[in-house]
Amino acid sequence: MAKNVLLMVDYGVNNSIHVGLFKIHLKEAGWREGFLEGAFEKSMDLPDAMIEKVVQEEFDSAANQASFKKTYCELFVTEDELKFSWDWNTP
Predict the structure, then answer these.
(1) Would you give the DSSP letter of residue 55?
(2) Among 5, 20, 43, 60, which residue's Cβ finds the most Cβ atoms within 10 Å?
């Protein structure tokens, strides 16, 4: 069963040229830009352990091709559609 994968990337000190190249290379690997800057989505039909490995390889490849400097990312995997909600009135 395909799982929804969300990759959140903090671009850190990378400039807009590096970020643009990174986005191009991730798109070539089948990733879609999410609704937030730095969010990328993809559906994968692999076991969780393989998803982590494949995502890391695709991220590393895109980052290397874009000459990325230090950055940070988080990976979220779910069998259901990714959904977000928040409370705007939280003090």
Answers:
(1) H
(2) 5
